[in-house]
Specification:
Elements (H helix, E strand, L loop, with lengths): L5 H5 L5 E8 L3 E8 L16 E14 L2 E13 L9 E3 L14 H9 L4 H10 L6 H7 L12 E10 L3 E8 L4 E6 L4 H10 L5 E4 L3 H10 L4 E4 L2
Parallel strand pairs: 2-4, 6-9, 9-10
Antiparallel strand pairs: 1-2, 3-4, 4-5, 6-7, 7-8
Length: 230
């Protein structure tokens, strides 16, 4: 069996060259250099021809067994030679490894986004998995769901607290698919009725027993079957 290079093991299919690997009991530090083709300006998309300078950025990578992995990646800053472009220089990004304004690799960011928890529970799970992420960072990675044009056939409705005892909202769920459809900024009948009017199609509505939700369903979706929680 042919032996694999360090690049093929740590960065398969990614344009980098590993210069040095420092191994300790709990951290693996990999020093690498980008070997990708000259990048394109993020504004005008013109491919760069001249290098302005180089510098090293540190990226948290997915752990390797019980050890954290830190990639010290040397990247190039390029000139943008298009005269009418407002951006004079820009830093290259290595596809599959780095992204703008992020201190974690593309792979690690994907792992963190797959943790479908928020705040402190997600932070505790990350510590167990040896992933470098705090609760605030994990919350920033959460993305709002794409709201469909029509309501799901079975729509779940319930209230939740943005701040307990002070501010409440409404969460709408596709019961059959088991996913969040939308989040409303309050729990009033007017807001929910407006949403039902803009998103028709709900045949069954599983709702909280709050009178505001009852009123909204009767006004905006009178033909839907209501199922109240216990």
């Amino acid at each position: 069996m042919a032996s694999k290079t360090v690049e093929a093991v740590l960065f398969p299919g990614i344009d980098v060259r590993v210069e040095r690997v420092s191994d300790s009991s709990d951290v693996l530090v990999v020093e690498a250099v980008s070997t990708a083709r000259p990048g394109r300006c993020p504004d005008c998309r013109k491919q760069a021809r001249r290098i302005h300078s180089t510098y090293q950025r540190a990226l948290n990578e997915r752990p390797l067994g019980p050890r954290r992995v830190i990639v010290r990646l040397q990247v190039r800053r390029y000139f943008c030679d298009r005269k009418n472009c407002s951006r004079k220089t820009f830093v290259e990004q290595v596809p599959g490894l780095s992204e703008r304004h992020r201190r974690s690799s593309t792979g690690l960011t994907g792992w963190l986004r797959s943790i479908e928890l928020g705040g402190r529970p997600a932070a505790r799970l990350c510590r167990r998995l040896r992933l470098a992420a705090g609760r605030t960072r994990l919350l920033r990675l959460l993305t709002a769901p794409t709201v469909p044009d029509r309501a799901p056939r079975v729509l779940g409705v319930d209230e939740f607290a943005f701040r307990k005892g002070c501010t409440y909202g409404t969460v709408l769920v596709d019961v059959e698919a088991g996913r969040v459809v939308d989040v409303l900024p309050d729990r009033t009948s007017e807001t929910f009725a407006a949403w039902l009017t803009e998103h028709p199609g709900a045949e069954i509505i599983c709702r909280d027993r709050a009178t505001a939700y009852t009123k909204a369903v009767r006004e905006a979706a009178p033909h839907a079957l209501e199922v109240a929680d216990r």
